[in-house]
Amino acid sequence: HDRHRTVDDTPFGGGPGMVMRPDVVAAAITAAASGMAEGTAMIYFSPRGRRLDQALVRELAAGPGAVMVCGRYEGLDERVIDQAGLMEVSIGDYVLSGGEMAALVLMDAVIRLLPGVMGNAQAHAEDSFEEGLLEHPLYTQPREWNGMAVPDILTSGNHEAIRQWRQAKAEAITRARRPDLWAAWQARQKSK
Length: 192
Fold this sequence. Notes:
Structural class: alpha/beta
Order of helices and strands: EEHEHEEHEHEEHH
Oligomer: single chain
Number of strands: 8
CATH class of the largest domain: Alpha Beta
Low-confidence stretches: none
CATH superfamily of the largest domain: SPOUT methyltransferase, trefoil knot domain
Largest sheet: 3 strands, mixed
């Protein structure tokens, strides 16, 4: 560290913005990772990273923990990404000012899968993406609101008919709104 405690500098080769220094970031990673279990995920949030999806969330929830590096400015010096073995993760095809919001998104998604966090242990089993489909429509009281009624099937007491209705709605919503998920779900169904 220099006497001014500089954490960033201009990029070699020129260009706009500032790059976070590898010595500073490596020291922070070392401090954060000390005492962490073997196999702890080392994550750096970057638009060029692996797209965050429910499969990765489940993988991280099953693991021993994670160290999350939130970049700023133009990003991190590539050498620290390589040296620390950081897994680059993206939360979407857009750019944020820093990785803090991405870290919050990941933490919320992972924490809700941990045992004892949800009031009902099965609550997340029907969430969007758990079975590869978006979630079916949800309804609650009052039974009629602003001239719109809850679908009769949901108040019928016929659990199998309700399950089938929900499945059909989840499929229709996924097909209409997320053709990419629909194609992947269909491929998985064919391979079963």
